[in-house]
Amino acid sequence: MSDELLIVRCRLGERDAFAELVRAWHGAVEGYVRRMLGGPDDDVVQEVWLAVFNGLPKLREPGRFAPWLFTIARRAVMNRLREAYARPEPEPAEEPAGPDEIGPIADREVLGAALDALPVREREVLLLFHLQDLPLDACAQICGVPVGTVKSRLARARRLLREQLERKEYEV
Question: Are 169 and 99 in contact (CB under 8 A)?
Fold first, then answer.
């Protein structure tokens, strides 16, 4: 069923329609939040869905649901990041050195660490464009910047990611 039809059903008060909407988009929202915050955060994901539930009656264009949803998710992530930056940093704990693991798990860890090392703005456009498969104009709308800015951030993000991976001696 299309998102537009689900939104209309939600506006008519059908609880099953909202549950179906959440089922359809929960993985994408959860993945975006996890990648932006460097780990899972169920509170932020719940915050997003609460804002979606409260905001659905005000959504003017149901056909633009995805950009609207990720705008809400972005706002929740930025609020969490602001809170995190306001807290003092804990002392780093020493980790025991172990043998390097090779294989798909190590590849994901290297890529995840490289993504985490990117500045938030660049990481955000990279995630929205490549992992959420959103078009440039939707990314621009979500980030609240012109399309040209998204393009330059995307180019910088790719360059920085490549540099991060090369530093880790990972073939790009």
Answer: no
